Amino acid sequence: MVKEKVLPGARKKEVILAKIKNLLEAQPEISFAYAHGSFLEQETFGDIDLAIYLSPVPAGSGTYYELALESALEELIHYPVDLRILNEAPLSFKYSVLRNGTRILEKDEDLRVAFQEQTPSSITILPPAPEALLEGGPGSVKYDHLRVEKRS
Questions:
Q1: Sequence ranges of the domains in the chain
Q2: C-alpha distance from residue 9 to each of 13, 35, 47, 67, 98 (Å)
Q3: Tens of pLDDT along 80-139?
Q4: CATH fold of 5-123, please?
Q5: Which of 27, 49, 84, 108 is spaced 20 to 30 Å from 98 by Cα?
């Protein structure tokens, strides 16, 4: 469990993000990066959430790359970091980062714009389910472990 910390003042937050940007900028494969999550949005945070886009994607394990970069960032800023690679991330994560995050680095504007334009266009927003379906009324669906039953 991550222990929450008090959010530093606005000036300290700017300094932390500038340090992060400088380290990420030195990595030639990082095309753009976003900060997102509680560090930006709330008074307390458990870690600093970052999302990066790689071009080209280095050979080998993406998880190893994430962990190595997280470690380097944590050593630099003295706060926990949760870093994810956007290239192969789930669509919902990409959408959330673009919608709620703050871009902190951009080396390739054309690539970032293409990524941004293609992500929301891939999402289908479903209308809210009618109350009767949610409350277990006739026609509702009950999920029971691996079985799905339609109620009549």
A1: 5-123
A2: 6, 17, 16, 27, 24
A3: 999 999 998 999 999 999 999 999 999 999 999 999 998 876 566 555 656 555 555 555
A4: Beta Polymerase; domain 2 (3.30.460)
A5: 27
